[in-house]
Amino acid sequence: MFTNFDIFYNASSSTIILMEQFHDYTMVFLTMIISFILVILVRVSTCKFSNYNFKENMNLEVIWTIIPMFILIFIAYPSLFYLYLFDLSINPTVMVKVFGAQWYWIYENFDQLEGKSYNSYPLSDIELLKSSHYKMGWRLLETDTRMVVPYLTEIQCLTTSLDVIHSFSIPDLGIKMDAIPGRLNSVSFQINGPGIHYGQCAEICGTGHSFMPICLEAV
Known about the structure:
Elements: H1 14-46, H2 58-87, E1 94-101, E2 104-110, E3 115-120, H3 125-130, E4 147-149, E5 155-161, E6 166-170, E7 175-179, E8 185-189, E9 195-201, E10 213-218
Parallel strand pairs: 1-5, 4-10
Antiparallel strand pairs: 1-2, 2-3, 5-8, 6-7, 6-9, 9-10
Helix pairs in contact: 1-2
């Protein structure tokens, strides 16, 4: 009855694609460092000779200081570049305001003419069985009202909260933004294609924290 799903989310936005590329980039350095350490440990453990008079070597100390410094620079530069790039919003076409509340979400879509506000509540098991979405198998993730946005469009999402701290998180879009009472946080993203994307509140906000799903549909 239920369809098969991949273990990992597929990248659906330019943000998460850059995150995956940076992850692979840093894993190259991590693999090199671990391999080098393992080789040294094996050689030291299998070597039968030891020099008890060997106390210092200036060239060796310079090498093991300079090489880690360059590795950190090669990792820090793209990390800071992507960090500021993700916060950059260049002429967003669509702006969506997200309010976190115990325990549901309120969305406000703004365009040039008017803004529309609607609440999004999770579907109960009985409602899910009666709907056409139950065959997908997304229990506790489907909502009665979806957040609808266009794909291939720069979208700016403003988040805040009406009561306690929440967190608006959609993993396959690379979105995770805290919703804090009295404060507006902003995140921009662009979805690569049409589809439905699921998320949840990522900040413990009370007894109903596990029942605050996010359902975003790109059209």
